């Protein structure tokens, strides 16, 4: 677990170590099957996988990047984008969301397991069943890592979490835990998921009222709570930017007074949340059909 947080070279060596990732997954599967999701070894295994999934899209060997891209190109001959990882324009990102994703391997080995639906379902199971904060945080964090970026892999994982594995109820429950780091990681994961336009309505329907309910009445005093508040605002921004219906949902959940109060904070120390709330307000005002409701 310590070695897996030793930086890019350490992660690379551990991902390449034959049988290591498979063994970690195997152990966690056994723990879940035996109804023992709270033991320390499971926590360690999940924390290692969490670390090994960090910056995975960027650090994947070129052969994997090419393999995923070639599979996608065979599915959609209209996609002329060279490569698939790295910085992409908004237009390309939208295209990637619309492009069918390649079929998964039925028996993944090694590094391929890290983004496979089997492991995604394991993380969701641990989020739901484990009561260890570190295990919950690492499972959420692994999914957060896998949904970061703009290539086909993050969008594939996001779709699996939301639509195929029905993971939103488990993530939503983590918004209401008392542990600040678990809550922060759950919100960060939802922020990543909410970037995927095809999933926004599902996410809004399932968790938007919960996100509004955990917004504070003003800018919070701690750094972690302030970052969490900023992430909530940016998630709500993603969900409402292109949807008047979702903006109305935020309004009916009594979110507007909270967002206004957070945006009006003058302190320089915790301006991150205020800035995010201001961006959200500006976006909400773009829905002209809601102006009279806002004014009321």
From TrEMBL:
Residues 79-109 are annotated as: Disordered. Residues 94-107 have a biased composition (Basic and acidic residues). Its main location: other. It comes from the Eukaryota. One of its GO terms (cellular component) is cytoplasm. InterPro entries: ARM-like, ARM-type_fold, Armadillo, Plakophilin/d_Catenin. GO terms for biological process: cell-cell adhesion; desmosome organization; heart development; intermediate filament bundle assembly; protein localization to plasma membrane. It is found in: Cell junction. Keywords: Cell adhesion, Cell junction, Repeat. Belongs to the beta-catenin family. PANTHER family: PLAKOPHILIN-2, PLAKOPHILLIN-RELATED. This is PKP2 protein. It comes from Bombycilla garrulus (Bohemian waxwing). The gene is Pkp2.
């Amino acid at each position: 677990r310590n070695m897996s947080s030793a930086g890019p070279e350490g992660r690379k060596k551990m991902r390449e170590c034959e049988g290591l990732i498979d063994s970690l997954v195997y152990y966690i599967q056994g723990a879940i099957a035996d109804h023992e999701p709270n033991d320390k070894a499971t926590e360690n295994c999940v924390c290692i996988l969490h670390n090994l999934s960090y910056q995975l899209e960027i650090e994947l060997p070129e052969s994997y990047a090419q393999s995923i891209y070639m599979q996608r190109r065979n599915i959609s001959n209209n996609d002329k984008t060279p490569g698939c990882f790295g910085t992409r324009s908004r237009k390309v990102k939208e295209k990637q969301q619309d492009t069918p994703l390649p079929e998964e391997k039925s028996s993944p080995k090694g590094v391929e397991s890290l983004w496979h639906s089997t492991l995604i379902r394991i993380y969701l199971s641990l989020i739901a069943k484990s009561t260890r904060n570190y295990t919950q945080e690492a499972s959420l964090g692994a999914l957060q890592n896998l949904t970061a970026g703009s290539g086909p892999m993050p969008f594939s994982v996001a779709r699996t979490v939301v639509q195929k594995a029905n993971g939103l109820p488990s993530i939503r429950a983590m918004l209401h835990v008392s542990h600040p780091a678990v809550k922060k990681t759950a919100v960060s994961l939802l922020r990543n998921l909410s970037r995927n336009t095809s999933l926004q309505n599902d996410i809004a329907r399932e968790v938007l009222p919960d996100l509004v309910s955990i917004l504070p009445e003003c800018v919070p005093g701690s750094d972690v709570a302030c970052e969490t508040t900023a992430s909530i605002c940016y998630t709500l921004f993603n969900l409402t930017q292109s949807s008047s219906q979702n903006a109305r949902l935020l309004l009916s959940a009594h979110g507007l007074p909270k967002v206004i109060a957070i945006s009006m904070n003058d302190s320089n120390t915790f301006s991150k949340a205020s800035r995010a709330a201001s961006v959200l307000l500006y976006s909400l005002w773009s829905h002209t059909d809601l102006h009279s409701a806002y004014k009321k």
